[in-house]
């Protein structure tokens, strides 16, 4: 999604204002001239100034699009891909503790392979092979505690 | 130093770096980011060895698909990719790639020599630095990043501010007050750098791939032979090119915020500007490739000068490495020369070793290039994504970090789609804490008096330079208007 400079400038300025307003609620450091609010206020001011600058620069030019959707957003296939990647990642984060790494990763990869057009017959074997390799590397070699989830019984 | 674990790690990460660099869409910074969970479990020296070697290989490896397919493997190779491809079409692929190899190694060795020779002297100066000087130095570095980034400085400024904002989250600030945590326990210790980094560089790339109309990569029809032939002649024919490229590359790498890609672009531009035959550029001429190829590898070494001496990263790669070093209790900065001098010597040895390794391994890569490029992207990208997810999880065994990675991946995707560079954001996240620490302690020391920032001589000098950089666009515009009216 492409925003015209005016829109992104506006977003930045709004963020800056929000930051400054919130930072002003921070309590001061007792006995010191500056407190935890100084830095966020400076950052917020910077966002506000930069955002205002972008808006001004955009107004000086002929009115361009405020918001423009990329070409890919108009093709349902690409939009689905985008949503799919995000959904897949969220699925991993939510499911990995319950289903365990091995199952979740195979599902994770298979979904993406399917969406990206990998040959059907290759999907599962490839996903399984990659998962096992990554599992070996991280769990066995590096001792990262990848969750076993429902496969707790056959854990090694 | 000749410990088999270190050597084994160097070799493995060299191959890894070659692979990542050679695959378009995967960058040297990504290689280091992906290595972080691995280095987590290694002692400090092998960890540094892995990161240094993989990036040296990756920066060179990006030249290979650039020359053969006109798709640069890493952004650092983008500057001269068209030139190299033109040479391939004229049948000179091996000269282009051989030059990329030889002069990358030369550039890297040059940068390392500067690091070895100049760093201790710089360290002596650095010990004079107090919070005032550090404040201006960090601000100078961040300012350089804003103005050197591609695109408009205003947008880079917003990117930087976002990064600094992310750095303020949590209670790790001088007042130990939990900021922007909104009741979340995980956010109390702040937003973790590694998931942010992996998200912004790797995840956004995969999302970009998922929504792009992709061209299938085709391997070149003929084999490649005779890589070394004619390189000696080039060494003698264009000495200024590789010397200047190496020097410029080291200098730019030493500037915080400017790394190999910027060094390559600037160097290519300088080469064309000062060449005796500028009209040949673009038709398949070797000169620009020599200069820029040396520059981007020299920048890698140069980036370590501020990293080792001040603890300030010279580019995004050293930003990640510094993070890892802190995790391992090796604190980069002037004290490293006092407390851990053997670390310095070991790092220099590693640098020399990895640049020399470029010769045999780079040769092997060029030979194997045809097969490597056959790994289809639709298989590669999901695998990369899974690697990212596991990597982000591995740092703190926290699913929250995976969420952070996704969020920042999306943010980076939208930022780049709208012309906001992401390098300043990463720099902001890395340096935000340091900047605030120095602002606050300086102001407390000065009793709240902002003029104190100009009282000490070095601080005042740095301050003037920084303010000058900030005012430079205004000055340039005024000068142009004067020139237009006279």
List keywords for this structure.
heterodimer; A: 156 residues; mainly alpha; 2 domains; two-stranded antiparallel sheet; 3% strand; B: 486 residues; 21 helices; 0% strand; globular
Description:
The complex is a heterodimer of chains A (156) and B (486). Chain A is mainly α and 156 residues long. Chain A has two domains: 2-68; 74-154, no CATH class. In chain A, 66% of the residues lie in helices and 3% in strands. Chain A has five helices and two strands, in the order E-H-H-E-H-H-H. Chain A has helices at 5-23, 38-60, 76-99, 101-115, 120-141, and strands at 2-3, 67-68. In chain A, strands 1-2 form a two-stranded antiparallel ribbon. In chain A, helix 1 runs antiparallel to helix 2 and helix 4 packs antiparallel against helix 5. The model of chain A has no long low-confidence stretch (mean pLDDT 83). Chain B has one domain. Chain B contains 21 helices and no strands. In chain B, helix 15 (316-327) crosses helix 20 (423-445). The termini of chain B are far apart. Residues 215-221 of chain B have low confidence and may be disordered. The chains are: A mainly alpha (156), B mainly alpha (486). Chains A and B meet through strand 1, helix 1, helix 2, helix 3 and helix 4 of A and helix 8, helix 9, helix 18, helix 19 and helix 20 of B.
């Amino acid at each position: 999604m492409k925003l015209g400079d005016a829109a992104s400038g506006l977003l930045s300025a709004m963020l800056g204002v929000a930051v400054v307003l919130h930072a002003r609620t921070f309590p001061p450091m007792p006995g010191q001239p500056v407190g935890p609010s100084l830095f966020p206020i400076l950052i917020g001011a910077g966002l506000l100034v930069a955002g205002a600058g972008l808006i001004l620069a955009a107004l000086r030019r002929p009115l361009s699009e405020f918001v423009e959707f990329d070409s890919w957003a108009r093709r349902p296939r690409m939009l689905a891909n985008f949503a799919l990647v995000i959904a897949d990642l969220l699925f991993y984060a939510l499911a990995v503790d319950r289903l365990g790494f091995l199952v979740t990763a195979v599902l994770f990869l298979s979904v993406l392979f399917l969406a990206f057009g990998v040959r059907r017959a290759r999907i599962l074997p490839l996903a399984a092979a990659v998962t096992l390799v990554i599992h070996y590397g991280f769990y066995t070699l590096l001792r990262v505690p990848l969750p076993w989830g429902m496969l707790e019984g056959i854990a090694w | 130093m000749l410990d088999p674990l270190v050597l084994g790690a160097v070799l493995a990460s060299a191959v890894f770096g070659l692979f990542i660099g050679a695959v378009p869409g995967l960058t040297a910074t990504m290689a280091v980011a992906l290595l972080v969970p691995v280095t987590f479990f290694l002692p400090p020296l092998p960890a540094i060895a892995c990161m240094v070697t993989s990036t040296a290989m990756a920066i060179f490896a990006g030249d290979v698909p650039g020359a053969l397919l006109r798709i640069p493997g890493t952004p650092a190779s983008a500057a001269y990719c068209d030139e190299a491809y033109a040479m391939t079409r004229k049948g000179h692929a091996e000269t282009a790639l051989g030059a990329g190899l030889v002069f990358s190694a030369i550039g890297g060795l040059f940068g390392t020599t500067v690091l070895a020779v100049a760093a201790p002297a710089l360290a002596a100066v650095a010990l004079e630095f107090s919070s005032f000087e550090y404040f201006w130095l960090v601000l100078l570095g961040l300012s350089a990043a804003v103005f050197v980034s591609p695109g408009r400085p205003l947008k880079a400024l917003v990117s930087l501010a976002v990064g600094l904002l992310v750095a303020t989250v949590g209670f790790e600030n001088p007042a130990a007050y939990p900021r922007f945590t909104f009741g979340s326990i995980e956010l109390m210790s702040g937003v973790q750098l590694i998931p942010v980094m992996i998200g912004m560089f790797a995840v956004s790339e995969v999302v970009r791939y998922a929504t792009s109309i992709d061209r299938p990569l085709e391997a070149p029809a003929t084999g490649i032979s005779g890589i070394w032939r004619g390189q000696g002649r080039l060494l003698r024919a264009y000495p200024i090119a590789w010397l200047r490229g190496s020097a410029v590359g080291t200098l730019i790498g030493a500037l915080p915020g400017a790394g190999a890609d910027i060094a390559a672009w600037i160097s290519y531009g300088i080469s064309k500007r000062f060449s005796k035959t500028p009209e040949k550029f673009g038709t398949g001429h070797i000169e620009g490739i020599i200069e820029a190829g040396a520059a981007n590898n020299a920048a890698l070494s140069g980036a370590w000068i501020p990293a080792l001496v001040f603890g300030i990263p010279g580019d995004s790669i050293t930003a990640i490495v510094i993070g890892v070093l802190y995790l391992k209790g090796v604190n980069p900065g002037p004290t490293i020369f006092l407390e851990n001098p053997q670390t310095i010597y070991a790092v220099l040895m590693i640098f020399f070793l990895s640049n020399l390794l470029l010769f045999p391994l780079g040769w092997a890569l060029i030979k194997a290039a045809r097969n490597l490029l056959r790994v289809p992207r639709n298989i590669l990208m999901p695998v990369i994504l899974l690697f990212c997810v596991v990597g982000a999880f591995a740092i703190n065994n926290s699913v929250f970090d995976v969420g952070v990675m996704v969020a920042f991946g999306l943010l980076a995707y939208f930022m780049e789609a709208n012309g906001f560079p992401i390098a300043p954001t990463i720099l902001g996240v890395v340096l935000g804490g340091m900047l605030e620490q120095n602002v606050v302690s300086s102001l407390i020391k000065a009793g709240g008096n902002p003029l104190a920032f100009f009282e000490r001589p070095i601080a005042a000098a740095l301050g003037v330079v920084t303010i000058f950089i900030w005012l430079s666009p205004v000055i340039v515009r005024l000068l142009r208007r004067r020139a237009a009216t006279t």
